[in-house]
Amino acid sequence: MLNPLSEALVTVGRGYVRGSSISFGKVPLTVGFLNSHLRDHPRRRVVESCFGVRYAVDTQDLIQRYIYLFGVWEPHMTRWLRQRLKPGDTYVDVGANVGYYSVLASKLVGDQGRVVAFEASPAFHERLLQQVRLNGCRNVRAVNAAIADARKTLKFVLASSHNMGANSIVPWDGEAESEFEIEAGPLTEMLEADEIASARVIKVDVEGAEGGVIRGLAPMLDQLRPDAEITCEVTPDRMAQLGDSADELLETMRKHGFNAYRLANEYTPESYLTALRGSPVVPVRLHGRIVEESDLIFSRVDAESLL
Q: Burial, 112: exposed, middle or buried (Cβ in 10 Å; 0-12, 13-18, 19+)?
């Protein structure tokens, strides 16, 4: 049974974290109480983000808990995307999860733009559709399918419901919370010709399967508009378990004229509090290899930072 006092403290504490310009006590409050309490005693609510988009969340999950608590997910990437997308653009979301970026992009590109969202998990696909309905988005094409380098059937594993974004085809040795199989195909076959031609930003967040996604994307890279950019979470260790290489992914993108920029990203509550009150962080040119999980932005811009 939930403690009424604890629940009241959560409500007041969240209001302080999200609504107050004062920083005093926010770190211990968030780290020592709010984050763990919301994980272990989930709330299911409809909340509004910092930028006015509504989301139905379940705080058991990391992504949805942070949206509830901070009003944003991945603040640096969110800020960058809000600067990049304009009315009439197309946004392609590979690994849409519960729809955070898809719905945000829908609002940014407007009625004349479009969003194509691919999510492999049937359960997350339903949550994605829920967010679309909640926000009255009419420019989103949501597809319950995986993206790969060829037509195939893939087996996904969810290791923990505390991080539902960790759905992956990477082999899992421990006990899995759930497993499912889904049909997959390359973006060259899953996107319409006009969606390819108008794509401004393509996001790839597939928990280790990014090598296959990029191989399937490669034949259409030269068809993208000159200012098209690709955001990609690159996880070298997970890629290696599938026989893929981060070096190969980088080389593929460079061969097609795309330079790699790294955008800082952390998932601790402290980092979110710092990001929300700090100066904007810009992507910086990647020199050398990728040796750890990294959020990359591939762009034809040739500079030391991506403004």
A: exposed
Indicate the Cα dihedral angle 81, 252, 118, 286, nearest 10°. Answer: -30
Helix or strand run (H / E) with residue 298: strand 294-299
Q: Which two tokens stand for residue 301?
A: 């811009």
Q: How confident is the model at residue 1 (pLDDT cuts 50, 70, 90)?
A: low
Element of type H or E holding 65 = helix 62-70
Tokens 């009255």 map to which residue? 136
Q: Average the pLDDT over 87-116 and give the result.
A: 98
Widest pairwise Cα distance in the chain: 59
Q: What burial class does residue 179 get, using C-beta atoms within 10 Å of its C-beta: 0-12 exposed, 13-18 middle, 19+ buried?
A: exposed
Give Cβ neighbours of residue 186 (< 8 Å, ≥ 6 apart).
147, 148, 149, 150, 151, 215, 216, 217, 219
For the domain spanning 72-299, the CATH number is 3.40.50.150
Instruction: Name the helix (H) or strand (E) containing 153.
Output: strand 152-158
pLDDT band at 174 (very low <50, low <70, confident <90, very high): low
| pLDDT per residue as tens digits for the range 72-86 | 999 999 999 999 999
Summarize the chain as % helix, strand, coil (round to 5). 40, 20, 35
- How far apart are the two ends of the chain, measured CA to CA in Å? 50
Task: pLDDT band for 286, please (50, 70, 90 cuts).
Answer: very high
**pLDDT band per the 50, 70, 90 thresholds, residue 67:** very high
